[in-house]
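It would be a great kindness if you could assist me with a short task in structural biology. The full record is reproduced below for your convenience:
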Amino acid sequence: MSDSTLMAMAERFLSALKHCQLLQMRVAQADGDGMTLVLPWSPAIVGNPQTGAVHGGALTTLMDTTCGMATLCVLPRFEVCPTLDLRIDYMHPAEAGKDIYGHAQCYRVTRDVIFTRGTAYQDDPDQPICQVVGTFMRLGQDIKGGIRFGDSLKEGKA
């Protein structure tokens, strides 16, 4: 699959996730190296108003989505792959006012499970806010997700 095809598929996938739309997440990169999403900073994602620290739920959403979407980078065709397990190790709080990038890649693909790892960062990927490992179940190409989910991913629909 070409990088432009993968990028278009990733953008369609993200646009089908209402909670990601509400957080205004966007695809920064999708290629053979993995998936990178952006969570724009906004007051709506602040968990501690005194410090401006980003809520852990917003970071969890970013990283679960990024890891799950990284499966698009390794599969020959789209498959629904729900999260089996997600572990996040928080290293330090995100800085207020700065976008957060989530990057993930798949490091092992089996018949039933895809294994992913990634990081969230702001200015420097070598200074992660958190590290994550996740596993995703392969349901196969015939499973299309919830009501109209599969239709929203078809070519030309947003």
Observations:
- The chain has one domain: 1-151.
